[in-house]
C-alpha cells in the first residue's frame, strides 16, 4: 500500500524513511479531509439547503430544516478517510486503529442519519395528516431503539474483536433481564398498537383521565408516554400502557357530531308551585311561544272536566294548569326555537327528584357548535334568560340564605322589637 507513495516521492527526488512516509500519509489524509469538509459543508450542503427551502414540496422543506444533510456528509467523510487510510498506510496497528475509529464513526453517523430521516417522516405525516390514527411517534421510537441496540452491538463487537453473532447469542440468555429493563417500552409499544388498531386515540383528541389529572388535547403519542396539553396550558404525561389498563374519556365523538350537550338544572322553590289563575293565564297567553300551548291545553282541560262533570269549586277535583308545567312547556319551546340549538338532537326539559334544595328542572339539549368559547356563551345566554323569566310564572328560585339575608332578618326583628317597646 505504501509503494505508490514512496514511488512518487522518489520520482520527485525525495528519499524518505518509513516513518516519514507514514507522517506524510497522515498529513495527506488530514489535508484532504479538511478540504472535503469545507467543500461539502460550506458549498454543497448550503447550496442544497437553499434550493430545498425554495421548493414547493413540503418534504424537501423539512429536509432543508433537518440535520440529515450534515450527517450524511459526515458519513461520507468517514468512508473517504477509510479509503485513504487503506491507500496510503501500511498494514499494521496504526491502520487497524484508524479503520476501527472510522468504522465506529460510520456506524454513529449512519444511526444519526436514520434518526433524522425518521424525524422528517414524522413531521411530514403530522403536517400532511397522513396516518395520524397510528402511534407514529411510538413506532419510530421503537425503530430508533432497535437500531441503537444493533449499532451498540456492532461497536462493542468491533472493539473486542469478536463476531456480533456471539454477542447476540449471549443476549438470548439475558432475555429475562432485557424484559425487565425494557418493560415500559415493550408495554408502550403493545399499547400503541392496540390504541391504533381499535381507533381509541389519535393526535388532537380531547382526552379526559381524572386519575392522572389529564384534561385536554393529545399532542404526542410516544413509545412510553402520551402527552396531554391541559386547558390551563399545563402538560400532563400519561403512561401509554395506562390507556389500555385504565379507563379514559375521549371526546372525539362529540367533536365529530357537531353538537355539544347542555345538561344543567335550576332549583325551584316548591312553595311557589301552584295552579294558574285566569288572570295569570291571560297574561301568559300573550307570549308568542305559549299562546298555542295555553289555548290547546286549556281546551283539553275544559273538555276533560266537562266529560267527567267534576265539581270545580274545590281545587281537589278536575284538571288545571300549573305554573311549573307551563314553565317547562315554555322552556322546551324556547329551546326548539333557539337559533343555536340542534333540532335533530335530543331536546328535553324534565323534573328531577325533589331535594332539600327544591325541585330541580333540568335542561337537556345540544348546541350547534363544539367550540368551547361559543358553547359556553350559548349556554350562559340560555340560562340568563331562564333566570329572568322564572318570576313571570309566579315561581321562585331556591337559594340558600346568605349573610345579607340574615342581616335583613336581624334588622327587621330589631325594628319590631323597637316598635313593641315604644307601644309599651
TrEMBL record:
InterPro entries named in the record: LSM_dom_sf (IPR010920), MS_channel_C (IPR049278), MscS_beta-dom_sf (IPR023408), MscS_channel_2nd (IPR006685), YbdG (IPR030192)
GO molecular function: mechanosensitive monoatomic ion channel activity
Keyword Manganese: no
Membrane topology: Multi-pass membrane protein
BP-aspect Gene Ontology terms: cellular response to osmotic stress
Compartments in which it is found: Cell inner membrane
Keyword Methyltransferase assigned: no
TM region positions: 23-48, 68-90, 102-122, 134-159, 165-182
Keywords: Cell inner membrane, Cell membrane, Membrane, Stress response, Transmembrane, Transmembrane helix
Annotated Mechanosensitive ion channel MscS domain residues: 184-252
Matching Pfam families: MS_channel_2nd (PF00924), MS_channel_3rd (PF21082)
One GO location term (cellular component): plasma membrane
Record-annotated Mechanosensitive ion channel MscS C-terminal domain positions: 331-396
Similarity comment: Belongs to the MscS (TC 1.A.23) family.
PANTHER family associated with the record: MINICONDUCTANCE MECHANOSENSITIVE CHANNEL YBDG
Name of the protein in its database record: Mechanosensing system component YbdG
Protein species of origin: Advenella faeciporci
Amino acid at each position: 500500500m505504501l509503494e505508490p507513495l514512496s514511488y512518487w516521492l522518489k520520482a520527485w527526488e525525495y528519499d524518505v524513511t518509513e516513518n516519514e512516509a507514514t507522517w506524510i500519509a497522515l498529513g495527506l489524509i488530514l489535508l484532504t479531509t479538511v478540504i472535503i469538509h469545507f467543500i461539502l459543508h460550506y458549498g454543497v450542503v448550503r447550496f442544497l439547503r437553499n434550493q430545498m427551502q425554495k421548493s414547493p414540496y413540503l418534504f424537501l422543506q423539512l429536509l432543508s430544516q433537518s440535520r440529515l444533510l450534515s450527517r450524511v456528509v459526515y458519513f461520507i467523510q468517514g468512508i473517504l478517510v477509510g479509503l485513504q487510510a487503506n491507500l496510503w498506510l501500511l498494514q499494521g496497528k496504526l491502520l487497524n486503529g484508524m479503520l476501527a475509529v472510522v468504522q465506529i464513526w460510520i456506524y454513529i453517523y449512519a444511526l444519526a442519519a436514520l434518526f433524522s430521516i425518521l424525524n422528517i417522516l414524522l413531521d411530514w405525516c403530522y403536517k400532511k395528516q397522513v396516518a395520524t390514527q397510528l402511534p407514529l411517534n411510538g413506532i419510530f421510537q421503537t425503530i430508533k431503539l432497535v437500531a441503537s441496540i444493533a449499532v451498540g452491538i456492532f461497536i462493542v463487537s468491533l472493539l473486542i474483536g469478536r463476531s456480533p453473532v456471539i454477542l447476540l447469542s449471549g443476549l438470548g440468555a439475558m432475555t429475562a433481564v432485557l424484559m425487565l429493563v425494557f418493560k415500559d417500552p415493550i408495554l408502550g409499544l403493545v399499547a400503541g398498537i392496540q390504541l391504533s388498531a381499535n381507533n381509541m386515540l389519535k393526535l388532537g383528541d380531547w382526552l379526559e383521565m381524572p386519575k392522572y389529572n389529564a384534561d385536554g388535547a393529545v399532542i404526542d403519542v410516544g413509545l412510553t408516554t402520551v402527552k396531554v396539553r391541559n386547558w390551563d396550558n399545563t402538560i400532563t404525561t400519561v403512561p401509554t400502557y395506562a390507556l389500555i389498563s385504565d379507563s379514559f374519556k375521549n371526546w372525539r365523538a362529540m367533536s365529530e357530531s357537531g353538537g355539544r350537550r347542555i345538561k344543567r338544572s335550576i332549583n325551584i322553590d316548591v312553595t311557589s308551585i301552584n295552579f294558574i289563575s285566569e288572570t295569570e293565564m291571560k297574561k301568559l297567553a300573550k307570549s308568542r311561544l305559549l299562546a298555542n300551548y295555553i289555548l290547546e291545553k286549556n281546551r283539553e282541560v275544559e273538555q276533560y272536566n266537562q266529560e267527567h262533570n267534576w265539581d270545580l269549586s274545590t281545587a281537589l277535583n278536575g284538571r288545571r294548569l300549573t305554573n311549573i308545567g307551563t314553565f317547562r312547556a315554555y322552556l322546551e319551546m324556547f329551546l326548539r326555537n333557539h337559533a343555536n340549538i340542534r333540532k335533530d338532537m335530543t331536546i328535553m326539559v324534565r323534573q328531577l327528584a325533589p331535594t332539600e334544595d327544591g325541585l330541580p328542572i333540568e335542561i337537556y339539549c345540544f348546541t350547534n357548535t363544539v367550540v368551547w368559547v361559543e358553547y359556553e356563551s350559548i349556554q350562559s345566554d340560555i340560562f340568563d334568560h331562564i333566570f329572568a323569566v322564572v318570576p313571570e310564572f309566579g315561581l321562585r328560585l331556591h337559594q340558600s340564605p346568605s349573610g345579607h339575608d340574615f342581616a335583613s332578618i336581624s334588622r327587621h326583628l330589631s325594628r319590631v322589637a323597637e316598635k313593641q317597646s315604644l307601644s309599651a
